[in-house]
Amino acid sequence: MKTQFFILAIVALLIFGACSFENGTVTAESNEGAKTETPTDAKGKTPVLVELFTSEGCSSCPPADELLERLETEQPYQNAEVITLSMHVDYWDRLGWKDPFSSALFSRRQDIYAGAFRTGQVYTPQMVVDGQTEFVGSDAAKATKAITENARMEKAVVEISLNKDQLAVKLSEVPKHENATVYLAFAEDDLANQVLRGENSGRKLTHTSVVRELKTLGMLPAEQDQLKLEQSVQIQPDWKRENLKLVVFIQENQSRKVLGVGRIKAV
After folding, report:
1. How much is the average pLDDT of 168-189?
2. Cross-strand bridge partners of residue 167
3. Is a pLDDT exceeding 70 seen at residue 56?
4. Residues 245 and 141: beta-carbon distance below 8 Å
5. Whose CA is closest to 212, among 233, 232, 182?
6. 188-114-248 Cα angle (round to 5)
7. Could you tell me the pTM of the whole model?
8. Which pLDDT score is estimated for 5?
9. DSSP label of 1
10. Per-residue DSSP letter, 201
């Protein structure tokens, strides 16, 4: 009887070793030669777009500019690649200091966000994460919450290459979406300016990811989940190419949700 029990036990162990559990856990023997990958292992960090609406004429903006720089340079999140854009609005220009990086285009973009968020107002500094969350741009805790949450969202694959001044973009695996636009931003790091008048008079301000130009690359209809684009790009003489990056992102036209984002250095 003992011998029969021992034989049955050995058989059971052999069967156990050769099979997988129903819950998906595989034994060492059946998993030999395979590699188990989490989404993070397979695809790396998820790119998240962080926009800051700011101005050199705004005394509350320098702390937000500093936060944006930390997010860009330190990349503090395990699940997120933070891609930053600093958009200098022009409505502060009439209040004592004309921001040399300001543009009415960025003020208009902020107006569109105000409509999407139904806030009915614009302000600086304002941070917008993936087109879905807005808050005061110097609030590090809210930035962390928004970035880490959006990094869990499904995103398109954005592949960018630059051959001299010829840009090629490949978008694939775009999640289900409404009609969207593909944008290209030229953003320059390591910019500084001595402010002579206005609320920041006497201060030397430094900036990262300053958007020098924002343009449309193409359209992505709701029924389309991939797209290839090619376009010649022009680097302006007053931009330092070694500090310049090209950021490509897909954004839904109505909800303003960012479906995917990528970047490449200009050199």
Report:
1. 98
2. 162, 231
3. yes
4. no
5. 233
6. 35
7. 0.83
8. 38
9. -
10. T
- The closest of 67, 66, 96 to 200, measured between CA atoms, is 96
Please state, in angstroms and rounded to a whole number, the distance separating the CA atoms of residues 130 and 28. 41
User: Are the beta carbons of 219 and 227 closer than 8 angstroms?
Assistant: no
Query: Does the pLDDT at position 28 exceed 80?
Result: no
The DSSP symbol for 118 reads T
Rounded to an integer, what distance in angstroms lies between the CA atom of residue 235 and that of residue 174? Answer: 29
Whole-angstrom distance, CA of residue 95 vs CA of residue 84: 27
Which tokens sit at 250? Answer: 């897909």
What is the residue type of 241? R
Question: To the nearest whole number, what is the mean pLDDT of the chain?
Answer: 87
Strand partners, 258: 251
Q: Report the DSSP pairing between strands 244-252 and 133-136.
A: unpaired
- Which DSSP helix (H) or strand (E) runs through 81? strand 80-88
| Mean pLDDT score, 6-27 | 33
Residue 58 has pLDDT above 60, yes or no: yes
Q: CA-to-CA distance for 85 and 47, rounded, in angstroms?
A: 13
Q: Which has the higher per-residue pLDDT, 93 or 16?
A: 93
User: Which SS3 state, helix, strand or coil, does residue 150 take?
Assistant: helix
How far, in Å, CA of 249 to CA of 35, rounded?
32
Give every CB contact of residue 42 below 8 A, 6+ residues apart in sequence.
none
Give residue 120's pLDDT.
Answer: 87
Angle at 102 between CA 240 and CA 63, to 5 degrees: 85
Quick count: other Cβ atoms within 10 Å of Cβ 39?
Answer: 11
Q: Burial code of 24-33, b = ≥16 C-beta within 10 A, e = fewer? A: eeeeeeeeee
Task: Give the C-alpha separation, 250 to 70, whole Å.
Answer: 24
